[in-house]
Design a protein that fits this description.
Shape: elongated
Radius of gyration: 24 Å
Helix content: 10-25%
CATH class of the largest domain: Alpha Beta
Strand order of the largest sheet: 3-4-7-10-9-8
Distance between the termini: 83 Å
CATH architecture of the largest domain: 3-Layer(aba) Sandwich
Number of strands: 16
Length: 292
């Protein structure tokens, strides 16, 4: 009887101890949450975190980064390798990342500029599990190891990437993969202008080719954002303005000209996208487009 009591006590003690710790490979894991961009991930407590946004090169912005060197802030950035010759790639990273170093970044890409209709497909999931099925470790110049997933979501071009410099530890690769596995987006990014534009686009008539109305990169905040795209003798404009946790989205369509929307050749839709993801048509006005 005493033997069974000891076994029960041991099992209960182990369960209580495990409840007090986050599951991880070694040591404690903590959760980082980015309120502005509505994502979170777990990481080893001892890894240093840097929070952006921070421009890392001409077309890229870091939102959050991790490293195992205890350095904060720390970002892998574009470097001048030769006079007037800049690089954002393995050569530049080897200059910045020490031996045995691990670096992970959640970032956004802003170019080179592409057409609005080239955005997508939209990544609908809130985690990266489907993308990680096709991801693998790559060996770059100088033995630099890279693990990366890219996707389009909420009107943005996302880039999650990790670099490990030799000597590379299997444990570090496993930690990186775990971080990717714990990455999560909010189900609804309430108040996010670019997400709201994408939701409102779904309610435009298909004959208006909603995919050609531009998302607006940059100027995310309380100010109104304006994006324009004029092709094929038409004028398309997108505006988004946050009002508390709702977003007002205005699409303007003009025809018969590339740069102006004349009153007799102009149509406008105004939507309100709520914090719950509801899309409400507030108003529709103007001349009737030929496509309708």
């Amino acid at each position: 009887m005493r033997k069974w009591r000891w076994v029960i006590w041991l099992v209960v003690s182990i369960l209580l101890a495990s409840c007090g710790k986050r599951p991880g490979l070694t040591g404690e894991w903590v959760t980082y949450r980015n309120e502005e961009y509505h994502f979170s991930f777990d990481h080893p407590e001892g890894w240093a975190l840097s929070e952006g946004p921070e421009w890392t090169y001409r077309y890229g912005e870091g939102l959050a980064s991790l490293n195992n060197q205890g350095r904060s802030p720390f970002w892998l950035t574009e470097q001048e390798m030769l006079p007037n010759q800049w690089e954002y790639g393995p050569g530049a990273f080897l200059k910045q990342l020490p031996s045995g170093g691990v670096y992970l970044e959640v970032g956004l890409s802003y170019g080179p500029p592409i057409r609005p209709q080239d955005y997508g497909p939209e990544m609908e999931a809130s985690d990266l599990s489907s993308l990680m099925q096709g991801a693998d470790w790559e060996t770059l110049m100088g033995g630099l190891q890279r693990y990366q997933v890219r996707f389009d979501k909420w009107g943005r071009w996302w880039n999650l990437v990790a670099y490990l410099r030799e000597p590379v530890q299997d444990e570090d690769q496993s930690r990186v993969e775990r971080i990717f596995n714990t990455f999560r987006f909010d189900s609804i990014p309430a108040g996010d202008e670019l997400w709201a534009i994408g939701e409102a686009k779904k309610h435009l008539p298909s004959t208006m080719r909603p995919e050609r109305f531009p998302y607006t990169q940059g100027m995310v905040g309380e100010e109104a954002m304006v994006g324009e795209e004029g092709k094929e003798g038409v004028f398309r404009q997108t505006e988004a303005q946050r009002i508390e946790d709702d977003v007002m989205v205005t699409f303007t369509y003009g025809w018969g000209g590339w740069e102006e929307c004349h009153p007799d050749r102009c149509h406008q839709w105004v939507f309100r996208v709520t914090a719950k993801g509801e899309v409400i048509l507030v108003s529709e006005s103007g001349a009737t487009p030929p496509e309708l």
